[in-house]
């Protein structure tokens, strides 16, 4: 009787690990070959929030952080095109219960009249005339287009359900080292030593034995979650460097289908401080209100009940400007997360086989280091990682 095929392990249950597991389970060779797929992770989506588990803290919006001249990241963004298509299709079929929201996204630029060319591929792209926009802050350029935002917990839970429905298994375990995959603590969960492991460990790649990637580092992000269901459009303002995400100051307003809105943000490289800083929160609230005055509840900016006629237009403008503390009553929570950044960008490759503690060898594919763009790139990278795994399967598994 032929022996059961050895399992494939996806290590990590962030947006990268879970989308990779779904793509793997959907692939014909895995389905036809009945190859067991197991996800193993320290953190799972419904755990209490932890800054080291970036996927649950993210905004998240589908926006590129790539400088047009940055071919490495631009390539990654081409890989992200399927992500937009996949998510747009999910939204179109099932609406906002997917955790996805289709919205008009407006971007403001200060200090440059250029935008990232990649945005021109989004639906409904236009260049705004900043002079006509009556902004309360200086801006040199503005564009708008249709984009998507994601509610991480909802979307990650849908991926968990999809994995289970496709026959995949999910386990909570810490793996100290890749060679540990044949340890009884792991094989008791997955049946036998795996043939292949796909490493989707984000920041965990720094300390995971056999990987120990010292070029991985945290880019700290602090955000404020507010409740403002009337805000249904997204805004960002980029000051300085257009490579965007990584340089200059970036302010963003990311509405979610459930009425919560994420206000951000910061990008603090190498900063491991896991708690919110009060002065940063105040600064975020001030900046967010500047680019999106509609955050302030209508009743706060409405003219007081008139006893002596309507207020002058100047008075109304003054009321709309927003004062410090204007959003305090809407704050739900303050969050901090560490984006898993990597000096040379995403590591997506096959590595040399690793010898397990019991002597067998395991094939290794890496898919980590997505920095600030894991959500928007997840499906494209998942597809590429799965291609690498499938190319290496024994020929009979592909029949
Ligand atoms: C404030 C903030 C805002 C962001 N906004 C956006 C946005 O708008 N758009 C966007 O695209 N991206 C955004 N990001 C970035 C995005 O969140 C990350 O790129 C993405 O979450 C990375 O996913 P991941 O699966 O690689 O890592 P993670 O989500 O960190 O998951 C890593 C997984 O690996 C597991 N793991 C690690 N080591 C081990 C081990 N040794 N053994 C077992 N398990 C292990 C962990 O437990 C976890 O399950 C944002 C991030 C932050 C912090």
TrEMBL record:
Transmembrane among keywords: no
Gene3D superfamilies, alphabetized: D-Amino Acid Oxidase, subunit A, domain 2 (3.30.9.10), NAD(P)-binding Rossmann-like Domain (3.40.50.720)
Gene Ontology CC annotation, any one: cytoplasm
UniProt binding sites for FAD: 201
Keywords: FAD, Flavoprotein, Oxidoreductase
GO biological process per UniProt: D-amino acid catabolic process
Domain FAD dependent oxidoreductase per the UniProt entry, residue ranges: 8-387
Necessary cofactors: FAD
A GO molecular-function annotation: D-amino-acid oxidase activity
Binding positions for D-dopa per the UniProt entry: 252, 339, 372
Similarity-based family: Belongs to the DAMOX/DASOX family.
Name of the protein described by the UniProt record: FAD dependent oxidoreductase domain-containing protein
Species lineage: Eukaryota, Fungi, Dikarya, Basidiomycota, Agaricomycotina
